[in-house]
């Protein structure tokens, strides 16, 4: 009983002592020191983390791979083959419509010899057959009516097979026509000249000459 009383008294004294003792205040904690570079460090770390996340989200870039082909012997160089280009001229077909010549000689019946085939002094073999052509234009005032106009041998050497031919068509003033005579070279060598004219009624005009050489 006394022992318990002493323990109780001790605890009571301790409690009173503790109640009267001021509360111990912990030593003041020094204020943290501010580092001005900490903001830059935080920004760099944040940017690095963002870049890492962006790289993870983006698809991987494709890097071209160069594959080296095995070495091959180049093919032999072929010699160039020359190319020939042939240019063929297209013959010009004369117009079938005769041209109209408005020139006027002033005469009632007149002509102009525009061309002659063969040309003068053409060489023929003895006895050779050929045709004489004269392209003539009516430059008179009157037409050459095929019903009463013809062309015939007039003078010179007789190279013709027939001495007279009828016009195959009427020729109005200003129009052209082709005079054709079937001829044959003489059997003897030499120079020969023949003359033909057109006749319309009583009018004889349009002298057409041809000279050939027979060898």
Give an overview in words.
The protein is of the alpha+beta class. It has a domain of 104 residues: Immunoglobulin-like, CATH 2.60.40.10. It has two helices and eight strands. Strands 2-8-7-4-5 form a five-stranded mixed beta sheet, with no helix packed on it. β4 and β5 form a beta hairpin. The longest helix has 20 residues. It is rod-shaped, with a radius of gyration of 66 Å. It starts with a helix and ends with a strand. The relative contact order is 0.15. About 10% of the residues have low confidence.
- Gyration radius over CA: 66 Å
Structural class: alpha+beta
What is the strand tally? 8
- Residue stretches low in confidence (pLDDT < 50, at least 5 long) are 23-29, 84-98
Oligomeric assembly: single chain
Helix percentage? 10-25%
Count the DSSP helices: 2
Shape: rod-shaped
Task: Specify the CATH homologous superfamily of one domain.
Answer: Immunoglobulins
CATH topology of one domain: Immunoglobulin-like
Mean pLDDT: 76
CATH architectural arrangement of one domain: Sandwich
H-E string? HHEEEEEEEE
- Regarding CATH, which class of one domain? Mainly Beta
Assess the beta-strand content as a share of residues: 25-35%
Major beta sheet summary: 5 strands, mixed
- The separation of the N and C termini measures 189 Å
């Amino acid at each position: 009983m006394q022992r318990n009383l002493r323990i109780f008294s001790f605890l009571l004294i301790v409690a009173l002592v503790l109640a009267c003792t001021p509360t111990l205040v912990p030593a003041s904690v020094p204020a943290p020191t501010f580092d001005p570079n900490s903001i830059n460090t935080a920004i760099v770390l944040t940017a690095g983390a963002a870049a890492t996340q962006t790289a993870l989200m983006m698809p991987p870039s494709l890097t071209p791979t160069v594959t080296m082909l095995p070495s091959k012997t180049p093919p032999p160089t072929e010699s160039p083959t020359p190319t020939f280009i042939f240019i063929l001229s297209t013959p010009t077909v004369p117009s079938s419509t005769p041209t109209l010549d408005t020139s006027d000689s002033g005469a009632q019946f007149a002509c102009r010899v525009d061309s002659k085939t063969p040309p003068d002094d053409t060489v023929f073999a003895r006895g050779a057959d050929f045709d004489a052509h004269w392209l003539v234009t009516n430059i008179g005032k009157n037409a050459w009516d095929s019903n009463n106009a013809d062309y015939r041998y007039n003078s010179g050497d007789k190279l013709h097979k027939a001495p007279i031919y009828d016009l195959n068509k009427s020729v109005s003033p200003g129009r052209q026509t082709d005079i054709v005579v079937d001829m044959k070279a003489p059997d003897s060598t030499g120079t020969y000249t023949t003359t033909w004219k057109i006749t319309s009624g009583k009018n004889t005009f349009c002298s057409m000459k041809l000279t050939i050489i027979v060898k």
